[in-house]
Task: inverse folding
């Protein structure tokens, strides 16, 4: 059983647990050395991977998933903005019911927004589907 479990953050959907471990292992070893702690054996460390949870095998997540996407989403506190990757033009602006705690896209390009109030699924317009609402 692993003694250390490494958990990645957002934006890791195009790598896997082996790549994550390879990039984190030197920093983990350096930190243990600085703390005068004994090194860990490979069996003592595992990296979990959930970056592909919403991504069907062999596909990127969708229109909101750069690289290759046409738009990106960003949130600050209670406001969500969807903007064009290449031109920065704002396509959508959404006021959230509470503070945003996470963003991802689902298998059909929908945006999953985690807030303190719960998860919200949004179909947001992008460059290829502009917002035509009044």
Result:
């Amino acid at each position: 059983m692993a003694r250390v479990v490494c958990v990645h953050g957002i934006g890791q959907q195009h790598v896997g647990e082996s790549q994550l471990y390879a990039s984190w292992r030197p920093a983990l070893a350096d930190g243990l050395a600085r703390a005068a702690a004994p090194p860990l054996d490979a069996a003592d460390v595992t990296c979990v991977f959930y970056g592909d949870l919403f991504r069907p095998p062999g596909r990127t997540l969708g229109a909101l998933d750069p690289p290759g996407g046409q738009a990106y989403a960003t949130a600050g506190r209670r406001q969500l903005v969807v903007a064009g990757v290449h031109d920065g033009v704002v396509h959508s602006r959404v006021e959230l019911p509470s503070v945003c705690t996470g963003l991802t896209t689902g298998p059909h390009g929908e945006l999953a927004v985690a807030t303190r109030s719960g998860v919200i699924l949004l179909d947001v317009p992008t460059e290829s589907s502009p917002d035509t609402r009044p």
